[in-house]
Amino acid sequence: MIVEPANGRSSCWPRVTEIRAGRPEDADELSRLFHASVREIASRHYSDAQVQAWSPTPPDPERFVKRITDGRTFLVATDAGGSILAYGDLESDGHIDHLYCRPDAAGTGVAALVYGRLEHAARQAGIDRLFVEASEPASRFFAKRGFRIVERNDFELAGVPIHNFRMEKLIA
């Protein structure tokens, strides 16, 4: 099944053929995608030290198995070969904890498709507010979708100062 946005226009390359629920067997690929995304996309906006603190190595795939099986909505977008292009999750309180895209698919609309499905799932569940802690590049993505910055979060990871933005969107 080819997945097209509601407006019928698709700029997604590589072409998304499916958006589906994450599966435990996706964990290794998700771990690599997360690490590559931080290393290649976030590195355009954060220092080498910040990127190293954020993702020094690919995370333990078991972290993804837990996310996939803990009851949250966890979606992946795949291409014709079944490779994961992007993924995202939605917790029952409206928190989007992860929305990551494979670096070679960044800017193609793949993450937007996953986000759209997450927002739809939130509406279906009666959630009226979405919120996220967005990195520099993600904050622009979310702002384009109607999120507003609530505050800048300054914190440390592995002793390295870093920041993100708490953002929210009312969807009721």
Keywords:
about 30% helix, alpha+beta, Aminopeptidase
Could you explain how this protein is built, in words?
The chain has 172 residues and is α+β, with helices and mostly antiparallel strands. The chain has a single domain, classed as Gcn5-related N-acetyltransferase (GNAT) (Aminopeptidase). The chain has five helices and seven strands, in the order βαααβββαβαββ. The strands form two sheets. It has a four-stranded antiparallel β-sheet, with helices on both faces. Strands 5-7-6 form a three-stranded antiparallel β-sheet. A hairpin with a 5-residue loop joins strand 2 and strand 3. Mean pLDDT is 92; it is low at 1-10.
What order do the helices and strands come in, and which of them pair?
Blueprint: E1 18-21, H1 27-40, H2 48-54, H3 61-69, E2 73-78, E3 84-90, E4 99-101, H4 110-124, E5 129-134, H5 136-143, E6 148-157, E7 160-170
Antiparallel strand pairs: 1-2, 2-3, 3-4, 5-7, 6-7
Distinct helical segment count: 5
SSE series: EHHHEEEHEHEE
State the share of residues found in helices, binned by percent: 25-40%
CATH topology: Aminopeptidase
* CATH architecture call: 3-Layer(aba) Sandwich
Question: Which range does the strand content fall in?
Answer: 25-35%
Full CATH superfamily name: Gcn5-related N-acetyltransferase (GNAT)
Tell me about the biggest sheet? 4 strands, antiparallel
Q: How is the largest sheet built, in terms of strand order?
A: 1-2-3-4
Number of domains: 1
Record field, number of beta strands: 7
Radius of gyration: 15 Å
State the name of the first-level CATH class. Alpha Beta
Structural class: alpha+beta
Distance between the termini: 30 Å
Which of globular, elongated, flat, extended, rod-shaped describes the shape? globular
Mean of pLDDT: 92
What are the low-pLDDT stretches, counting only 5+ consecutive residues below 50? 1-10
